[in-house]
Amino acid sequence: MTPTEGTPNPQSVCAGSQLQDPPLRVGSYTLHSRMIVGTGKYTNFQIMQDAHRASAAEMVTVALRRVDLKNPDNNILNHLDLERMTLLPNTAGCFSVKEAMQVAELVLELDLPKLLKVEVIGDEKTLMPCPLGTYEVTKKLAAEGWTCMSYCSDDIVLCKRLEEAGAASVMPLGSPIGSGRGVLNPANIRLIKEAAGVPIIVDAGVGQASDCAAAMELGIDGILLNTAIALAEDPVAMAAACREATKAGRTSYLAGRMEKRAYASASSPIKDF
Amino acid sequence: MIVTVNGEQREVSATTLAELIEELHLQTRRCATMVNGTVVRKERRAEHRLQEKDQIDIISMVGGG
């Protein structure tokens, strides 16, 4: 970083402000970016790698699947900057507690730490998460010492229960996976954040950069997005835009917005004209 | 013997899971293994003998969100 683009104090949100923003902590993990990115749906690994760099994200999701035996050298690990980014394996595609628990077992076999995005799908068409399955898996794995980042619907009671079950982070959806419709129920997300004692990370639903800003302005701790970047016409540019919007939304939240008013309030003096 | 590896039937000369991994040139690849739906740990692969018609899954990381 050159002096011209750096901030005088790395903890300060901007030059001239006393506001400080500590890094995001999930369990024992410290993230200097509040954005977590994915690795799915990219046209090729080069674009993914460039988008990851532009995102400045320090955590990246991966899925577990069968090795392509016709093309075994097609290994995603060769295209991830693991010096900078922590791998967050997910249980995507699991429809039952048993399947998700098996993925956890496989994660350990892949020499990865006990860190998992818990995702148990309850409905094939909407890909809405199953609250019961997600709760059960979170409770079991947390008891075994796992850092669970649990993906769930935007229900405040469920989010509280997942925290009680031992989730290190609760990740309510903004809108259905891959739908790109933004945060459809900001009031719920705000209530979830207010009640939470662990980081709240909105996962799924971001369609464009402004969605990141709007979500962060609700006071949440972070955002997880994949499709918005991967399926943008220019994924690298969208990754950069989402990075800036996430930061802008966070700073805007910390800055404290003005109160809304029913009537106009002149910005220029109305006397002595 | 004939086994199913990652959903495809194959004739293999390997008699253990470890040998199968070598036969498929995956020994340097970070991967997890399951036989007939049960995870077989890395340290058990050499002693795990394959049976005719075993369903073997070799799992690794892929793109996902």
List the helices and strands and how they pair.
The complex is a heterodimer of chains A (273) and B (65).
Chain A lengths: L23 E3 L2 E3 L3 E3 L7 H11 L3 E8 L19 E4 L7 H13 L5 E4 L12 H13 L3 E6 L3 H10 L3 E4 L13 H10 L5 E3 L5 H8 L5 E4 L1 H4 L4 H21 L18
Parallel strand pairs in A: 3-10, 4-5, 6-7, 7-8, 9-10
Antiparallel strand pairs in A: 1-2
Helix pairs in contact in A: 1-8, 2-3, 3-4, 4-5, 6-8
Chain B lengths: L1 E4 L2 E4 L5 H7 L8 E4 L2 E3 L14 E9 L2
Parallel strand pairs in B: 1-5
Antiparallel strand pairs in B: 1-2, 3-4, 3-5
Number of folding domains of chain A? 1
Order of helices and strands of chain B: EEHEEE
> Unreliable segments of chain A (pLDDT under 50, ≥5 consecutive)?
1-9
Proportion of residues in extended strands of chain B: 35-45%
CATH superfamily of chain A: Aldolase class I
- Sheet-strand content of chain A, in percent, reads 15-25%
CATH homolog superfamily of chain B: Beta-grasp domain
**What is the CATH C level class of chain B, in words?**
Alpha Beta
Low-confidence stretches of chain B: none
The CATH topology name of chain A reads: TIM Barrel
Protein described:
The complex is a heterodimer of chains A (273) and B (65). Chain A is an alpha/beta fold and 273 residues long. Chain A has a single domain (24-66, 73-255), classed as TIM Barrel, CATH 3.20.20. Chain A has helices at 45-55, 97-109, 131-143, 156-165, 186-195, 209-216, 227-230, 235-255; strands at 24-26, 29-31, 35-37, 59-66, 86-89, 115-118, 147-152, 169-172, 201-203, 222-225. In chain A, helix 6 (209-216) links the parallel strand 9 and strand 10 (222-225). Chain B is mainly β and 65 residues long. Chain B has a single domain (2-59), classed as Roll (Ubiquitin-like (UB roll)), CATH 3.10.20. Chain B is built from one helix and five strands, in the order E-E-H-E-E-E. In chain B, strands 2-1-5-3-4 form a five-stranded mixed β-sheet, with no helix packed on it. The longest helix of chain B has 7 residues, at 17-23. The radius of gyration of chain B is 11 Å and the shape is globular. Chain B starts with a strand and ends with a strand. Classes of the chains: A alpha/beta (273), B mainly beta (65). The A-B interface holds A 38-42, 48, 61-67, 69, 72, 75-77, 87, 89-90, 92, 102, 105-106, 109-111, 177-178, 204, 224-227 and B 5-8, 24-26, 29-34, 39, 41-42, 57-65.
